[in-house]
């Protein structure tokens, strides 16, 4: 059985915060942020909009896009490190709101690689015939764990949600191969042990450049394809320089890589589904395209998928 993404949705909060807005708040410049990260602006959710609200909006859109009913969903997986509260989970909160009364529900914590972990977990349940449809959401309200006194991290992150319905697709399409991995020894480079996220940017950068390229190459190989058969790359939107390094390693031209970091910053687990949805809406990803999704995050964790759209 072939399994793939059959519907996508995304939600971005309305409030736009530009680099110039941040210049007024801390010792930074638009020039520094743009050249070091590729970010021009990001979205922050208002105080009365929580993670589950954004997840619900994206999920609703994905369900409509897949042309299914909420009660047909067998499992809801929400990848987030910024849930409304430790429990109940965001997954159960949206289960109730969506009316997905037949769905089991849980959150997944794999930081920025969370959406990849979610999609691959979902694939197993669909492939084995256990559930016909699994809803996977990547969602973060990173603004609530961002220390606006720390310019090293405060300029990087944004809020948002992306969602996908995983289900059966026609033979030969959908997910062709995947890779998931973790290296707990790097946990000290990116963590939250108090109110705010903390990061050793340089260490994360080095890891990400190496891992994104390697994982992308591995899934292309596992799918029995070569780099020149890849049509499009959707990397986790963490830093344009990290993204560029993986694009160049695959030998793809600039227009064949997803880029939403300029508009949305790093939205962690939400960045890949948000970007993929934008690319589909803009016609950059078309039917039968071979697409590589690749992400990395705190843990350290990583994941990549090679799929035929
Ligand atoms: N404005 C102005 N100057 C700044 C800022 C800022 N916002 N932030 C740091 N600087 C300064 C530093 O203090 C440093 O000054 P110094 O040399 O006087 O000490 C200088 O700029 C250079 O700092 P570096 O850390 O060397 O800058 P670098 O080019 O490495 O870029 C960055 C930093 C953007 C954080 C980069 O290391 C990076 O992208 N790392 C990966 C981060 C990442 O991907 N995180 C998320 C991963 S997973 C997840 O999404 C949760």
Tags for this model:
single chain, 309 residues, alpha/beta, Peroxisomal Thiolase, Chain A, domain 1, 2 domains, 5-stranded mixed β-sheet, 4-stranded mixed β-sheet, 10 helices, 27% strand, globular, binds acetyl coenzyme *A
Summarize, please:
With 309 residues, this protein is α/β, with parallel strands linked by helices. The chain contains ten helices and 13 strands. The longest helix has 22 residues, at 201-222.
Topology:
Blueprint: E1 2-11, E2 16-18, H1 19-25, H2 30-37, E3 41-43, H3 51-66, E4 73-79, H4 90-98, E5 104-108, H5 114-127, E6 133-141, H6 151-154, E7 159-169, E8 174-182, E9 190-192, E10 197-199, H7 201-222, E11 232-235, H8 240-250, H9 261-264, H10 271-281, E12 290-297, E13 301-308
Parallel strand pairs: 4-5, 4-6, 11-12
Antiparallel strand pairs: 1-7, 2-3, 6-7, 8-13, 9-10, 12-13
Helix pairs in contact: 3-4, 7-8
Bound molecules: acetyl coenzyme *A.
Q: Using DSSP, what is the number of strands?
A: 13
SSE ordering: EEHHEHEHEHEHEEEEHEHHHEE
**CATH architecture classification of the largest domain:** 3-Layer(aba) Sandwich
Major pleated sheet: 5 strands, mixed
Global outline: globular
CA(first)-CA(last) distance: 16 Å
- Ligand catalogue: acetyl coenzyme *A
Mean pLDDT: 97
Are there runs of 5+ residues with pLDDT below 50, and where?
none
CATH topology of the largest domain: Peroxisomal Thiolase, Chain A, domain 1
Q: What is the CATH level 1 assignment of the largest domain?
A: Alpha Beta
What percentage of amino acids are in beta strands? 25-35%
Biggest sheet: strands side by side, in what order?
A: 1-7-6-4-5
Q: Counting H and I runs of at least 4 residues, what is the number of helices?
A: 10
CATH superfamily of the largest domain: Thiolase/Chalcone synthase
GO cellular component, one term: cytoplasm
Pfam family, one: ACP_syn_III
Pathway: Lipid metabolism; fatty acid biosynthesis
Domain Beta-ketoacyl-[acyl-carrier-protein] synthase III N-terminal: 106-184
